[in-house]
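Notes to self after the Tuesday call (sharing in case useful).
The group wants a holo model before anyone commits to mutagenesis around the pocket. I volunteered. Ligand is flavin-adenine dinucleotide. Logging inputs and output together so the record is complete.
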Amino acid sequence: MRKFDVIVIGGGHAGTEAAAAAAKMGCSTALITLNASRIGFMSCNPAMGGLAKGQLIKEIDALGGIMGRLTDRTAIQYRRLNSSKGPAVRSSRAQCDKPLYAQTMQSYLSTHPNLTILETEVADILSDGKKIEGVLCRDGSEIHATSVIVTAGTFMRAVMHTGFEQTEGGRAGDQAAVGLSQSISKLGFQLGRLKTGTPPRLHKDSINYSEVEPQPGDEKPVPFSFYELPNPFPYLPQVNCYITYTNEQTHEIIEENFDRSPMFTGVIQGVGPRYCPSIEDKVKRFRDKNRHQIFLEPEGLNVDEIYVNGVSTSLPKDVQERFIRSIPGLSKAEFIRFGYAVEYDAIDPRMLKATLESKDVDGLFFAGQVNGTSGYEEAGAQGLIAGINAARKSKQLPEFTLGREDAYIGVMIDDLILKGVDEPYRMFTSRAEYRLLLREDNADARLGGKGFALGLLSENDHRFLQTKLEAIEMGKKSLEEFFVYPTAETQKWFSNRGLPEPKDRLTGTSLLKRPEISWSELSELGFSSNVVPSSVHEELEIQLKYEGYIKRDIELLEGVKKSDGLRIPSSMQFSDVPGLSTEIRQRLDHARPETIGQASRLPGVTPAAVANLLIYLKMSEKSHERTVRAP
Ligand SMILES: Cc1cc2nc3c(=O)[nH]c(=O)nc-3n(C[C@H](O)[C@H](O)[C@H](O)COP(=O)(O)OP(=O)(O)OC[C@H]3O[C@@H](n4cnc5c(N)ncnc54)[C@H](O)[C@@H]3O)c2cc1C
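Result:
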């Protein structure tokens, strides 16, 4: 019988990140997946990042994960979203060459030390009910491990729908996983039914490009990875996407066929994402809108498929053909694949700890879509945390967790394990309380040290980070030592721009803090910008311009941290805590929070209840100290 330190079930975005992390941390790791040629496959859109998702990739990269580096190797269009808005909401997005992304992932993992890839189906999870033992595969083989990570994505009891046509399968071209749900359910996990959907794919030569609007990428693309810049950069030729719109005729065709939609006729029971509705949902919910925007996105450089972003649908094939052909630029559209919806099982993530390990079965971890999330980035980020903790468990090292103040990853996991999900969860910047602290540009400064300590970042990567941090400090010093004096020439410079003329000398720091002054204006005033490497310009400028807000957030955070991190012993009986209502006691019993911070964020738990918990904890601590000290 084979034995590994860590088994990862699934080769999607959570599984690949988990397996790479565990193997990098020195654990013998098995990645078991249904189809090895689909490892790292993008099930839906050909893009990585986007609002708040870009932050997740940067954080994965900062910690030493692989998603950012692979994105930079395969990107065919980069776009910085919200680039004219505040730094907290700026996010990167890259269109990738879809087949190349999966191939690059496969060749990376296939030569990874400590990692074995096995192509089979996991049919059962082996445990004594309290502690993980390993897995049983469909071919009858038993594989044992200290930790098992389930990253089964959209595959558990998965059914695909196009109109009233139903097919078993996790996504087009892939079988469903049947036994795993049952096995997880037998271990006491509650399973819910969720749903997601995908739009049709059209042949690129069937689009009339004169009727659609080109959408080029950024002139100066910014890489995802902090540590590795492909040479040349961008590594691949960059391409345009295109924009078009639905119209009233499109909406009429869709509306006429609501009675043939599996969504509106009760055929699909799973809950879909409200924030990412299908086109039939959009037409129904936003009747006042006479058009919806559509992005036509190439799936690769040598690929015929165009992804029609914005019209995810499970309507019958003939309806899809009619409504798509009513859209400008698509009147002669040829379908390579029709849109469909997929329903699948997901666990209730409230049964997990912040490490993504089960609260009940020691050594069993869950990550990705199976925890009720949606998206490659959300999956990758959870995979990384589960991989790190599974590896640390097998090495008997303490757990590794991230808080809401550390990273978007911390926000997401905290939301999942405390609130659970009632629809597929995706990351938004609005979910983070300290989003000015959790920016894309400083993810390496926030997390790089942790990644190095965990053994995920190499010496080289770490040195690179140190050099960057030193450059920022040197930049601050040079700005502090640069002065603009109130001469006739400088006063003219200021008055020409409608700015108040300086009365005293001004430092570079005080100038760069002003909203109307950036690096180019500083250069005009005589500051030699090349003293500060351009790679740190943005971060340094944000630090100075938003200093007041950042300081306020840090102070706020310090106050919260004092009580937030206090641990609640797992043996604690909430029924012993005086002053808690039955409802609050039940909520606490159900969620079993690990810290006071987690308890305070549970829906329905009042500040007064938190105060009672705090008093109780302090009193228990004192009585414990008295007992320990007693002769
Ligand atoms: C049709 C469709 C539409 C989607 N639409 C969107 C969207 O619009 N926006 C968005 O952000 N995300 C969308 N997604 C979701 C996105 O694809 C997932 O969020 C992401 O792929 C999740 O990654 P994962 O690693 O959790 O799972 P997946 O990428 O699904 O990977 C699961 C892996 O587990 C393996 N596996 C499953 N069961 C077993 C078993 N028993 N034994 C061995 N291996 C097993 C599979 O072979 C696969 O490799 C969509 C997905 C689908 C299928």
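Two things stood out.
The CA atoms of residues 486 and 595 lie 56 Å apart.
The mean pLDDT is 93.
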